[in-house]
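Troubleshooting: if your tokenizer reports a length mismatch, compare against these two reference records.
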Amino acid sequence: MNTYQKLIYSICYRTCGNPFDAEDLTQDVYLAVYRNLSTFDRIHERAWLTRIASNKCLDYLKSAKRREQPTEEDALLRLPDARGTPEEEYLQKESKEQINRLCERLKEPYKTVAKEHFYLERSAAEIARGSGKSLKTVQTQIYRAKAMLKKAVKEARYAG
């Protein structure tokens, strides 16, 4: 019991996220171990204990989900707001504009790839399909454009 106490507790704590419930679960695990000691083969002690702990934690999660009955209001509160605050919207728009301005400063082919990836938020695969370039070429160009953009941002910080 002393050898694996921390391991069992950490499994329980990671599952439930509550130290009090984790302590209760740890005790439940040891009670289950004691009750099933006659079926234990004494070879794979750690695996056996962690399996019991995992099963106890799964049972706990199942019962916890059954106990909580979300209301319609709870469900609505969990939905993400499609729009942020006016300040967040302005900052996001301003950031996008800054990204666009920085991309415009790059030389081709990095300019086009950077605008599509960082400003228009397209994946490397989408850019490759649209441009007829290989995926690896586009990935390399994005990587290099990113380094150029980082350098441009640093220079802008030191200049301003």
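Reference record two:
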Amino acid sequence: MRGTIVILSLLLATACKQKETTNPKQVASVEAKTNEQEAVDLEVYDFEGFKAFLNKEDDKTYVINFWATWCAPCVKELPYFEELNANYKDKNLEVILVSLDFPSMYDTKLKPFISAKRLKSKVIALNDPSENKWINQVDSSWSGSIPATIIYNKNERKFFERSFTYETLEQEVKHLK
């Protein structure tokens, strides 16, 4: 009986070992993902540094979306912001995705998320624990819940504390342009 257990253990160990080494594509894929994740360059700002993004007075229209990887409605609408960015990148529009993820999540959750979703819009992290001070500076009507979006240009500014579809997002941008 003891001999049978030893032989079974050796067979199982050998079988597991073979599974790990017989798929070089899987190993290469994991390495590529790791390299992509390391390549994500995340800009992190406190609110004082971030304020410059809220008040640009050039000829662009800015779409600033406040979101987090742990917010399901935020994640659901991100493809719409990416589509808007792709469709309007040559039309004087800039999409900025402002992550409110916790700093402890930047390397373990946020950067891998950015890499996996292949986000092309500018992504920055807002790291300022004094949200009770800066939320009203973003917009006096903001309760602090996310998703939240500001769409503005030098002539007009709109604030939204809700989710978007691509159609409603594009409609708001067109009204402002």
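Descriptive notes for reference record two:
- Confidence is low (pLDDT under 50) at residues 1-38.
- The CA atoms of residues 37 and 108 lie 10 Å apart.
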